[in-house]
Inverse folding.
């Protein structure tokens, strides 16, 4: 259950969306931690998926005008789609659609995602592509950021969530099981793939407000990169294409 202040912000966001998009608003859906059990008030973002009859440039301009206010209410930049995009993207974004489908709350309009039939043929490729791409980006951003503590903390926290999503979907692919809570995903992945990720676990505990940041942030980042490299290797060898289960 969300705290009253967050619920008030969600109600305001819903009303804003109805005013901005009018009768073209098919569905407004809250997904991610705010629709589950890992939401931390004042820290976690409110993730929204907006489905319209048609995404037009005037609607993008209107969203741009309202977005600063939405950020103040705790919302991340929303996903903006139309019906056609949802239908045609079922095979291109299986990770995103699976995660929305399994943990969401309809704030307004139609229930789009619960009944969505997701084509998961390319899920393994997407998971490996995402983790390799994130590793390349972390290396490049460290070269730019260096030992700037605040920016390193942001890099690690934001990327840790991505890796949890990747792990969740690889468990789904390999084992046909689904976990929603961050630490449960990590527990399941470590169990099924026999690989430990202690620094990633520390980051998730920081994200959930359970642990403080380590004193030596640059050393933590170095070890974190090593764990991401290990994750790449696990995904690369874990599942031959012929054994895909979904």
């Amino acid at each position: 259950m969300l705290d009253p202040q967050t619920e008030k912000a969600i109600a305001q966001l819903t009303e804003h969306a109805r005013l901005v998009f009018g009768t073209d608003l098919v569905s407004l859906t809250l997904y991610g931690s705010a629709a589950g059990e890992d939401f931390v008030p004042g820290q976690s973002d409110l993730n929204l998926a907006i489905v319209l009859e048609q995404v037009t440039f005037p609607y993008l301009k209107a969203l741009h005008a309202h977005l600063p206010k939405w950020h103040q209410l705790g919302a991340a930049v929303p996903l903006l789609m139309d019906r056609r995009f949802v239908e045609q993207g079922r095979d291109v974004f299986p990770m995103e659609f699976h995660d929305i489908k399994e943990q969401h709350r309809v704030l307004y309009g139609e229930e789009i995602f619960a009944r969505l039939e997701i084509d998961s043929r390319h899920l393994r490729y997407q998971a490996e592509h995402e983790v390799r791409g994130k590793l390349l980006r972390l290396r490049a951003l460290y070269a730019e950021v260096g030992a700037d503590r605040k920016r390193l903390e942001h890099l690690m926290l934001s990327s840790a969530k991505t890796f949890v999503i990747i792990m969740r979907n690889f468990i789904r692919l390999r084992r046909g099981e689904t976990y929603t809570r961050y630490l449960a995903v990590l527990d399941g992945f470590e169990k099924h793939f026999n690989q430990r990720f202690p620094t990633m676990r520390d980051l998730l505990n920081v994200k959930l407000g359970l642990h403080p940041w380590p004193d030596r942030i640059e050393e933590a980042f170095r070890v974190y990169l090593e764990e991401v490299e290990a994750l790449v290797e696990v995904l690369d060898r874990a599942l031959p294409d012929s054994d895909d289960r979904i």
Summary: Residues 123-243 form one domain. The longest helix spans residues 149-175. The chain is about 60% helix and 10% strand. The chain has two domains: 4-109, 123-243.
